[in-house]
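Protocol step 4 of 5: obtain the predicted structure for the target chain.
Materials: sequence only (see below). No template structures provided, no constraints applied. The aim of this step is simply to have a reference model before the mutagenesis design in step 5. Sequence pasted as it appears in the construct record:
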Amino acid sequence: MKKEKLVMNINHIIANELSVKLWQVDVAIKLIDEGNTIPFIARYRKPVTGELNDEQLRTLDERLKYLRNLEEKKKTVVDSITEQGKMTDEIMSKIAIAETIVAVDDIYRPFRPKRKTRATEAKAKGLEPLADIFLKQEKNKNPEEEAKAFVNEEKGVANVAEAIQGAKDIIAEMVSDNDEFRKAIRNIVVKHGLIVSNTKNPEEKTPYENYYDYSEGVNKIPGHRILAINRGEKEKVLNVKIEMPEENIIASLDKVIIKGESQFKTLLKEAIEDGFKRLIKPAIEREIRSQLTEKAEDGAITIFGQNLKQLLMQPPIAGRNVLGWDPAFRTGCKLAVVDNTGKVLYTTVIFPTAPQNKVAESKKIVLDIIKKYNVSLISLGNGTASRESEAVIVDIIKECPTKVEYIIVNEAGASVYSASKLATEEFPNFDVGQRSATSMARRLQDPLAELVKIEPKAIGVGQYQHDMNQKKLDEALSNIVEDCVNNVGVDLNTASAPLLEYVSGISKTIAKNIVEYREENGQFQSRKDLLSVAKLGPKAFEQCAGFMRIREGKEPLDYTSVHPESYSSAKKLLKKYGFSTKDILGGNIRLTDEIKDVKEVAEEIGTDPITLRDMIKELEKPGRDPREEMPKPVLKSDVLDFDDLKEGMELKGTVRNVIDFGAFVDIGVHQDGLVHISEMSNKFIKHPLDVVSVGDVVDVRVLSVDKERKRIQLSMKK
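Step 4 output (structure tokens):
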């Protein structure tokens, strides 16, 4: 069989998996290979790809990498087996049809250069022919008699028993290396195996008490339980194993290998059992646990990603001066006033909480700040002393002559940011508390711009994030942030380097260079000025330009998401209907009702119908922010105490985190309540994300309050 047969039709495979046309995949792969980013392809190459969206393109890119690795793996394996002179048509066929890297590894196992094993030692002693005699199972032959010919003290075979044991070791490894056996056993374990966990100390109180004496089918156990069990095992609280139908598996192997009654039967049964228990079983157990973990991680990463997206896409609260409040006891509450552009106007520390309890003094300071800096919103962190601070804030609001509201923001990641190199560069004269308070205020004004400064996994909307493949997690979350940033677009004249890093085509170095160019040369007047930035060449410009916004520059189209490559068409369109580019910022352009035949107009102005439709949307709503369509955060002016909660109470809350088994909802008492998946809907739902997303405002009913453990059970059922 020729190597050409190894060449996989990757494009065809992906087209089938994504249920899209082959030509769409062909084009998308060509664009990716040319160095185009996913956001750029999704936004500006719709006509070419048949409108593949960013999600489809991400999946395509992921599968492309995997299948190319698989193809490379196949070639490497074929070369290795061929070099050994052991390649056959059958092996080549198996490799050619293998669909996973695991399957290729199984085929390669017998040919892989082995470290020293009992079988390799036996082979070195010349016992392989004896193993072959045993496997032939000729009825007129006797194992002991056959073994005598292989006794050789020079080779280390002292007697018949050692010769027989060596032959059995070779057979055991042969059984273990058989790819068909492994495949069949793997399928049996997946169908009938059990994940079992227990503990040495059943009296010990830990978060893993549910798993002290636990078992569940391998094919049924949900991802979050796998991750919980893994963590319990890692912390040495749990012992975990996979139980499998060993007797059935061994009987099946016997049936295939043993050819009826012979004097070799007992020896072969022993070798087969040894091959299974010593070699196959531990390997299969590792494999399946690894697969379960990988699947669980992928599920958790998906949920994390969706939560993160919702959080990043929360609508900004524009046009308000905000007081950021970082609560604490001993060291005092750090305050930072931030104006509507994000500029820090003032910082201070107050001590309204224990041990100082300077409540009256603190109130006066805050009331003076509100008056002096025209503050209308307080952003309070949910950390230590938050509850005590909230009580003070509510009293301040009652005494304040002007309207002031407050909101509690999740502090997750604020401490990471405040101690980071970036925060030090941004605020060299601030301590970590001042930086943290500033971050709290800013993340309310523009969540996306502020949260990109924090490592995505530190933002606090996932589960078991520290237990999973960090590289995979970082990559997936980074892709989410990239999609959000490019979906919203960035103001070229105000965007920070961390925000610019996520723009299509912009590297860390180029982002830094953009900020430096802006500081040295003043504000960008045109997207074209980007070409003067060090290391930002034509390709990077093509990728990023459409996502950069300039509000009051030389070219009004620079404020829209219309790509510079389409400016000529956009200007022809405006002229045709009596507008100029100057009308863009006024928001007075109306084209939708004017254009009757999109295809005809597209041809006339030198573009395509898809680009024209996007162009019309942009020209009618320049610089539109997709976040405006998201639910607004709930602003408060009064407080609810934990002790105020009663069973049956109906409240409004904000979804803070969504996990596999439910959602945590902030109802304003500093302890998020859990809505279990069974309490989310009167109908059956597969996953909480089918019902809620991070940031959603929901109606809940209190089911139970555990004051001792600070646990609140909620229901969303009507």
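Step 4 remarks: The mean pLDDT is 91. The chain is about 45% helix and 10% strand.
Proceed to step 5.
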